[in-house]
Amino acid sequence: MNTEILSTPFIERCVALLKNCSATESIGAIIGGNGTGKSCAMRALELRYGKLGLPGTCFRYRCCQIEAGATRGIRDLLLELGAGGAALMNGSSVSVHVLSRIAIREFKQHNIRTLLLDEADQWSVQTLGGLVSLYDLCKEKEHPITLIVAGAERHERWIGALPAMRSRTLHFENSTNLDEAGMASVLKSWGEPFSGLVARVEAGENPAKRVFTRIFKGTSGNFRRLFYFTELAKQHPGQKIDTALVDAVLAKMVNS
After folding, report:
1. What is residue 73's predicted lDDT score, i.e. its pLDDT?
2. Span 9-175: which CATH code?
3. Which pLDDT score, from 0 to 100, does residue 251 have?
4. I need a surface site. Which of 4, 35, 86, 131 has the fewest CB within 10 A?
């Protein structure tokens, strides 16, 4: 899957969100249910970043499976960045303030101006509070960062509920399951035989329309299920995507 060229209305809204947050020094949140394309959108932002005319570079980080506590969360983020040192390995004795200063040093060294934090709702309230403190300290040290966070929970329950967020502007985009037009744009970007199916649908071929509708209903427009469907379909190279193949793949998905 070429996420860089993938274009859906949702991904384009996320690009606009990133640009807006960068221009206004506000925090952005991408919210939506499981499998609706949040991680794909974050990956697209990372890959497109250099072409968007935004300052510096960006760094994408998945926040899942992080132990509770701001010190732990920021330390893991820094270790992923490549910041070494004994201080980072002994998080229990290092304050968030010290770790934040190490983070700023790393951001400046790598010219990181945007943080994309996926599955951020997996972090504790304390960890998220430390993240906002880091965001503020970067501004104070004249190295402002743009912060985009993504999570499945409603934003009021995590980033929007933080006391530290009350005086800040929070922009957000909601991800939902794809409609038929969105699914068509995704399948186009995944190459043959899926782009060929969409081309036949757009040409008005009724058999292709029936196959397309079967895929849409079978995956419920869920991005993750659609991706899984295409991966299973690729296991039948050279076979035309027809009703029989679609039904076989969907049945395999149900039984797996």
Report:
1. 63
2. 3.40.50.300
3. 92
4. 86
CA angle 87-107-65, nearest 5°?
60
Please indicate, yes or no, whether the overall pTM of this predicted structure exceeds 0.90. Answer: no
Residues 6+ apart with CB under 8 A from 218: 229, 246, 250, 253
Tell me the average confidence (pLDDT) per consecutive run of 10 residues in the chain, 256 residues long: 67 94 91 91 93 92 64 66 49 63 84 91 80 85 92 81 79 91 89 91 95 95 92 86 92 82
What are the structure tokens assigned to 193, written together? 């035989």
Amino acid at 142: E
